[in-house]
Design brief:
CATH superfamily of the largest domain: P-loop containing nucleotide triphosphate hydrolases
Distance between the termini: 71 Å
CATH class of the largest domain: Alpha Beta
Strand content: 15-25%
Shape: globular
CATH architecture of the largest domain: 3-Layer(aba) Sandwich
Largest sheet: 7 strands, parallel
Number of helices: 27
Number of strands: 26
Radius of gyration: 35 Å
Length: 728
């Protein structure tokens, strides 16, 4: 291998005694007896290794003609060059030196390399990479990665980050951990690195906010310290955090009951407050994702008292759904009466803004947050708590943007369902909690959401779960509320009546065509209204044809609802057994039809919808009076209610989001329940309801696998085809 002017070439030769010939295809006679078959096999070897003869390659013949005009002494006989259709010289020659030369040597070739050839390959040793974390503004760290090469420090970070935009990661997935992989350097050489080590380094870089300007959150920096692929001496600030994270219990000190707490916390609740203190101590924020009914409010109030005990006296802002705000005030008065609490509500609330600096607890709603954000962001809160934080799951919503504008030392999200529809919702929560931690939304989608949701990439899922693990505390009732009685879920398949089937199939065929036409004309994203309208009509037929308000012949024939008939057969049995029932539906018009039938049958009942004025009185009546059934719209009563007098829950119609159904069920199945709870789901067989139920199960699996639920709020193309299938 030699350097010819500015051209790097290989010049293979064959030797017969004292005679040497260039290795090229020849057909003429020779005065020396030559082994032509062996030479042809050697030529074939070189060709398979990506080399081509200069004099026979059409591309190079043209270049050579130009070169010879400048240098008549240029000799190219027997010279070989990387095939331009396969590789470039800067990529090929390091590969040749690292791998092809070894293969040829094993085949008994003798390899000689000109001392000025270059393209050296350096095999990386375990201790050669020098990595460090440098403090950066905002408490973050800048990553520096380099190697000493021939007495000079080479900055590896730009080289490594450039690999993120190439096919390198996919190539590495095909290699065993100890297989060598080449990293090409600007000087034409290369580093040879074990594939497993390089894969780990690139995964860490891919998780950074901006790999090309690598800033690390302290939590990411701490995770990096545990990785042997990049040995780093931890900065002093990270040593304490690292020690706590190595403790699998996320706590190192005994719970101390704060003064002013009028409650005896359960062990898991003590762990929850210790976890909040851990976050506060290390300037971290997180999500308390306990099941509904496990006392997230009480744990948070306890944490607020603990902050006060440490001299952190700034006001705490709690933002919650309108219906839940009074519950916060009631719980504060009951468990932490020493906290000075104010509620921002009503047209006169502006007068209360001047009292915020002197309050301990400031309560407001998501609805008012976006109206009052200009005033609220003038204050520096000690802690901001978003209760039912899934209200900011849409990052483009005004309420989400308003929450991100607020100022505080610590932030907490409370939500039993931080992932309702897709992982993008989790990104939105963390944008509020720790801006920049999960990077820009597009990068998060590329690195996590798409691989996990679409490709079921277990490695990406585990990487994300490990990254978020210290910041999400999730306990289920099965894990910690062992004193709760059992919960039994029963799915009741209901066959549509003949008239309902005819109406369903007529509407389905019509809507299927309309949806397909809309998608063909405007695309899937711009056809969401048509899609949801189609699915709404089919769901209404399953509940009761009267909801559709059609005047067609099929609609006039379908006067009865098979599901409504089935419901009252079920209720007759339940009432005879003395059961207390919560019945949920998304359709208030369906609740009116059920209400009408209850009146006909002379059953007493209560009803709660978005139009109901006195929620608290309705709840109190159901808890204290022997009323057999409570009709509740899912949106109005899915959260913020304690209805442990019930022992039976009926979901009249399924909803896309299994978490919303689970929250509704938890109105009855929560701390304080002393009776076994039965959950009945009425599903029309072979219809869109059946397919929604199947989608629910898939969604629950995703959320459970990440948080240890759900995945699409509106269906994608594949789900849509499934939902709009004919009756089965």
């Amino acid at each position: 291998m030699k350097q010819r002017d500015t051209w790097l070439v290989a010049r293979p030769t064959v030797h017969y005694g004292l005679h040497t010939f260039p290795l090229i295809k020849t057909t003429g006679e020779s005065r020396v007896a030559r082994d032509k078959p062996a030479e042809f096999r050697a030529i074939e070897q070189l060709t398979k290794l990506g080399l081509t003869n200069l004099s026979t390659n059409p591309t190079y013949r043209f270049l050579l003609s130009l070169a010879k005009k400048q240098s008549s002494e240029l000799s190219v006989e027997g010279c070989w060059f990387p095939d331009p259709h396969l590789s470039t010289p800067s990529v090929y020659w390091p590969w040749f030196r690292a791998k092809a030369a070894r293969m040829l040597a094993e085949a008994e070739w003798k390899i000689k390399i000109d001392e000025n050839f270059g393209h050296d390959v350096h095999e990386l040793c375990d201790d050669e990479i020098e990595a460090s974390l440098i403090p950066a503004p905002g408490g973050w760290f800048t990553l520096s990665v380099g190697i000493d090469l021939d007495g000079e420090r080479l900055d590896l970070l730009p080289i490594l980050t450039s690999l993120l935009d190439s096919d390198t990661i996919a190539q590495l997935q095909e290699l065993e951990d100890d297989e060598p992989h080449l990293i090409y350097l600007p000087n034409g050489g290369a580093l040879q690195v074990p594939a497993g080590r390089l894969r780990t380094i690139l995964h860490h870089l891919a998780a950074l906010t901006d790999p090309k300007a690598p800033s690390l959150h302290p939590l990411d920096a701490t995770a990096l310290l545990e990785d042997e692929a990049l040995p780093i001496d931890p900065p002093a600030k990270l040593k304490g955090l690292r020690s706590r994270l190595l403790n699998k219990q996320k706590k190192t000190e005994k719970f101390i009951q704060p003064d002013g707490l009028h409650a005896e916390l359960r062990d898991y609740q003590k762990t929850g407050t210790e976890w909040m203190n851990f976050l506060s101590k290390h300037e971290l924020n997180g999500i308390l994702a306990d099941d509904m009914g496990l006392g997230k409010t009480l744990q948070t109030l306890t944490h607020i008292l603990q902050l006060k005990a440490k001299g952190k006296d700034g006001p705490v802002l709690v933002v919650a759904p309108t219906s839940v705000v009074p519950n916060w005030l009631a719980e504060a008065k009951k468990f932490t009466p020493s906290l000075r609490a104010i509620i921002l509500h009503g047209p006169q609330r502006k007068k209360l803004f001047t009292h915020i600096p002197h309050a301990d607890l400031v309560l407001t709603s998501f609805a008012l947050l976006q109206r009052d954000v200009a005033d609220l962001k003038k204050h520096d809160f000690q802690l901001i708590v978003l209760d039912e934080a899934q209200h900011i799951k849409n990052p483009s919503a005004k309420v989400s943007q308003a929450a991100c504008e607020l100022k505080s030392h610590q932030r907490l999200c409370l939500s039993g369902t931080p992932v309702e529809n897709n992982l993008g919702e989790l990104w939105s929560l963390f944008r509020f909690l720790m801006p920049g931690f999960l990077g820009p939304l597009e990068r998060f989608r590329r690195n996590y959401q798409t691989p996990i949701e679409k490709d079921n990439d277990e490695e990406r899922r585990e990487f994300l779960r490990a990254r978020l693990g210290p910041l999400i505390l999730r306990r289920t009732k099965d894990q910690v509320a062992t004193e709760l009685p059992p919960k039994t879920i029963l799915v009741h398949p209901v066959d549509l009546s003949s008239a309902q089937r005819d109406l369903y199939e007529t509407v389905r065929a019509t809507m299927d065509k309309e949806v397909r036409d809309a998608i063909a004309a405007r695309g899937l994203e711009q056809s969401q209204f048509a899609i949801l309208d189609a699915l709404l009509k089919l769901r209404q037929i399953c509940c009761h044809p009267a909801l559709l308000k059609l005047q067609t012949e099929e609609a006039k024939k379908a006067k009865r609802s098979a599901k409504l008939d089935y419901l009252f057969e079920l209720l007759d049995t339940l009432f005879a057994e003395g059961r207390r029932v919560l019945l949920f539906s998304q359709f208030t018009s369906m609740l009116e039809l059920i209400e009408r039938e209850l009146n006909v049958r002379r059953h007493s009942y209560l009803k709660l919808t978005g139009e109901s004025k006195d929620r608290g009185n309705l709840v109190k009546r159901f808890q204290n009076e022997n009323i057999p059934i409570f009709l509740i719209s899912l949106k109005a009563g899915g959260t913020g209610l304690n209805l442990t007098a019930a022992d039976t829950v009926i979901h009249f119609d399924p909803w896309w989001n299994p978490a919303a159904e689970a929250q509704a069920t938890d109105r009855a199945y929560r701390i304080g329940q002393d009776k076994p709870v039965f959950v009945h789901k009425l599903i029309c067989s072979g219809t869109v309801e059946d397919r929604i139920h199947q989608l629910q199960q898939k969604k629950t699996l995703l959320a459970d696998s990440l948080l240890s639920g759900a995945v699409k709020g509106t269906p994608d193309a594949d789900s849509l085809r499934e939902l709009l299938k004919p009756l089965t």
